[in-house]
Amino acid sequence: MKSNDIFDGVTDIRDDIIDSAAAGDAKNAKKKRSKKLRWISAVAAALALVIVGGVMLNTGGALKVYAISEAEYPKMAKYPGNWYTDKQYDAWWASVRAQKRDLGDTSDLESFFAESARTFLSDADGDNIVYSPLNVYMALSMLAELTDGESRGQILTLLGCDGIESLRRRANDVWNCNYRDDGALSSIIASSLWLNENVSFKKDTMNTLASEYYASSYRGQMGSEQFDRALHEWLNKQTGNLLSEQAEQIEFDAETVLAIAATVYLRAKWGFEFDKENTSPQTFRGADGDLIVDFMHQRDDQGYYWGEKFAAVSQGFEEGGEMWFILPDEGVSPEELLRDAEASSFIFSPDRARTENSKYLYVNKSIPKFDVSSDLDLVDGLQNLGVVDVFDDTKSDFSPMTDDDIPISVTSVDHAARVVIDEEGCTAAAFTVMLTAGAPMPPDDEVDFVLDRPFLFCITGDSGLPLFVGIVNNPAAG
User: Fold this and answer.
1) For residue range 250-300, what is the model confidence (pLDDT) as tens digits?
2) Angle, alpha carbons 463-471-448 (nearest 5°)
């Protein structure tokens, strides 16, 4: 990470981003976007924060976009595949181990993930809804670095940390133990800051964000088409173009002081792929009635898990991480399951597979293919969770960010996410931009697991922490 005096080494932003942005200026000059810059999440995850000053800033002068600092991610040896030498395998495995961190007691993380998921997934109302708790955690951690006083204290309380130093270490460990880019599994967590060229920023704070959060920093003219296009290119690159439509709707206002964009991108193959010849149409009893969708089928000897109101199985990814499918009992909604203590503990704990209510047997899985996405406004939810001062420019404290005497507040927080699964694997992305009957024990040898009614899913990385959590009410709807 290039974190030493990053403000002293201003260089032009990477040519491929600027060239693409310039080309997009002409193409989109007449295209009116409907959304101002906000937090938005995409497939796997992404988060951004828009912080706006209360005065109109002078945006005159020549238009330039600068890269103040660009994050350098850990280098990983490539997965050698099925045919390899001992040396190749040892090098790959050493790089995987190097990313691991001992998170110790994870009750703070589990509490935030569960509480925030209940808040943001409570209004599905028959629609599909996807949320990345890890993405929002990282974005809020970065926001805490930019604030002080009660503004910071409210974020620390929500995230379960007693100080900014402990949160910094925690967020860095969470980042590293969920980062993978080795050819077998792509789990990329990226962050960037977009700075108004007419506002001064404290370089020590920006250096901390670069070194501890792997956040790149760019500076330019807020409200310009070129700066918008540069952001779009960055978001699309970090999320594999899975959220390109959402990214195109984002634009900076001239008043924007700073925006934090955080993304999570996941692309993984199943460790045991579904046979496409076994895929067949089947009835799904959706929230709004029955529909016919393509179901994937597979028989596997694996763990089967159950609780008083649910049953669950997982589908492992190749060389790390897995996707959990949680089926509520008949008469139990996914939202009700999120409020249930036993189910919530299972979904959000990295030790979920150690539950006593588990059995190893043959599971006949029937899982619908789906491509689900959602766009959430997080402002009300964050305020309900206790983060309120940053949204009020008469109370907010952004003194660690700038010495400029201007009223500053967070203006909006959107979270967009998308998850796609098929016979070969799973792709997911997200970005946030800050501007009833008890389940019985299964049979001894074999059980059918059929996701033919609204269900929950949870996607985890190597750490076991949830990258994505979602409710599928209609597998046929995007």
Assistant:
1) 888 888 888 888 899 999 999 999 999 999 999 999 988 999 999 999 999
2) 85
Beta bridge partners of 67: 11, 218
Count of residues for the chain? 478
Dihedral pair phi/psi, residue 129, rounded to 5°: -150, 135
**How open is the CA angle 163-165-166, to the nearest 5 degrees?**
70
Note the Cα 301 to chain centre separation in Å: 31
HSE-CB for 358 with a 13 A CA cutoff: 14
239 strand-pairing partners = none
Position 111: which residue type? S
Q: Are the CB atoms for 367 and 293 separated by under 8 Å?
A: no
Structure tokens that stand for 357 in this block: 């209510």
User: Reduced to 3 states, what is the DSSP secondary structure of residue 88?
Assistant: helix
- The 3-state DSSP composition of the chain as helix, strand, coil percent (nearest 5) reads 30, 30, 40
Q: What's the rounded Cα separation, in Å, for the pair 51 and 257? A: 6
102 pLDDT exceeds 50?
Answer: yes
Nearest to 400 by CA among 203, 141, 160: 203
Report the alpha-carbon distance of residue 428 to residue 372 in Å, rounded.
10
Q: Which residues, 6+ apart, have CB-to-CB distance to 261 below 8 Å?
A: 46, 47, 48, 49, 191, 192, 193, 194, 231, 234, 235, 431, 432, 433
Three-state SS annotation for 177-204: HHCEECCCEEEEEEEEEEEECCCCCCHH
Sign of the alpha-carbon dihedral angle for 363, 364, 369, 374? negative
For β-strands 322-328 and 310-316, DSSP reports them as antiparallel
> DSSP letter string over 331-366?
T--HHHHHH-HHHHHHHH-TTGGG-SSEEEEEEEEE
What does DSSP assign to residue 230?
Answer: H
What whole-number distance in Å separates Cα of residue 348 and Cα of residue 109? 9
pLDDT digits (tens, 9 = 90+) for 222-233: 889 999 999 999
